Amino acid sequence: MEQRNGTPISKGIAVGRIWCYSNEKQSIPKYKVQHTEEEVARYEAAKGTASAELEALYKKALDEVGESDAAIFDAQSMMLSDEDFNELVYHFIRSEQVNAEYAVTVAEEKFVNIFSHMQDDYMKARAEDVRDVSQRLIAILTGQPRSRQMGGEPVIVAAKELSPSQTVQMDKNKLLGFVTETGSSNSHTAILARTMRLPALSGIEAAEQWDGRLAVIDGDEGVLYIDPDEETVAQARKRCCEEEERTKRLQRLKGKETVTRAGRKILLYANVGNLSDVEAALANDAEGVGLLRSEFLYLKKKTFPTEEELFSCYRMAAELLEGKRLTIRTLDIGADKQADYFGLKQEENPAMGFRAIRVCLDRPEIFKTQLRAVLRAGYYGDVAVMYPMIISVKEVRAISQIVEEVKQELTREHIPFGDVEQGIMIETPAAALISDRLAGEVDFFSIGTNDLSQYTLAVDRQNAKLEAYFDAHHPAILRMIRMVVENGHKGGCKVGICGELAADLTLTETFISMGVDELSVAPGSILPLRERIRSLDNPG
Ligand code: PEP
Ligand code: MG
User: Fold this and answer.
1) How far apart are CA 37 and CA 91, in angstroms?
2) Whose CA is nearest to atom 1 of ligand 1?
3) Which ligand is nearest to the CA of 329?
4) CB 314 within 8 Å of CB 374
5) CATH code, 267-534
């Protein structure tokens, strides 16, 4: 049995086989060929195989995720028969007398370059299709599978690093947990792991030879056991059973009110990223959704989602919630949440860079599409909207003006929309410090303690090395929260907390005594928090 210690970033325990996930690009050999026409034929044969693979993927995606996402594979099949692309490959094989896989990489680079410099966002996004198709061809030509699909059994994924977009694209039913080399407990990947209720560790350098071996991942103690002995497996299974017992105990709190013993009611909402999380929120008896991280829908896609796609997703969420509150946070793209088709440039300090509301105010066409979808969904349920990364009154006013324009457009077009409450995230020290002024501009505040801690403490939330400095209990953070609650209430705003700190049971009493109205947490934290609140006497 081997043992590796890491940093626990999501609690829980699981037993299963390791699946090594690699996102490194293969290095492609370049060599001279004698018979160029044979090489051209080899390329043609690879195209045939790729085409059959893409057709199978199209059918699978059609069944599992629907037509609009399946269309990616259709677009890739078209790419495969693109005359210009193929001509370039033939030309290179013949004129340079090189192997087919090398010729494909040359064509790939050239086409990626052309597409990514196009003005049109749709065409820009085609660059990723070129990459995908080329990598598929190269894998076939070299005989090395590029990225293995996960098998039937659920697995513990081991990777150097996992971005939020890679994580959201994994099949939840096939995951038991994650181990990564990099990544902190405040990263969005860690938040996703907690939302999925999967144990996760960072700081573990996985070895390729672990692939397929049995392991125990202990997200409470921060340990990964490879080839565990019988006793370790038995103990892990016992803890899984205890966890199930605890879950059963908490289930009895369903349908009960979230009130302190003194009768103070707290609204308990869920943080979600997609529709299945909304189901999890309901299964855990949340009183609504306090934070829909709407960017995760964008991260799953290869191109911008249309207004109809967004609307149908938001409407479905609102309808699933049957009159309970759905708070949609507008696009918080940038920093660690990147989608190539946005064409955002690499930055020195992405967390303090061009992200979130800054992108939306700079590219109003993207923002308006989302706002139209949000307002329209408001007709079908209790929808609220909130804006991330606010630092000034000026931004809030600019947003209000855009919201007004969108409402006028919808009215002109006779499209129904709802009365949607407007709120902002308080997640920068600037917003906290001017919360007295901001309160007059909106209906509610939602305190984002993840970013508020990162910016107040000057500690990069992504940096696993700084874990010890990321002290969200720091008096500076707690003072700011108190101040925001007081200012919000004076200005007639409701105030909630939706950062990870909201789930910290050691602070529940403090938050309630400060007057916080709402707490929004991962679905799995709802019932433990209800249990805690119901045990409190009369805080404050
Ligand atoms: C936060 O910053 O606390 C927050 C809730 O937003 P996110 O974690 O998505 O940045
Ligand atoms: Mg944030």
Assistant:
1) 11
2) 448
3) 1
4) yes
5) 3.20.20.60
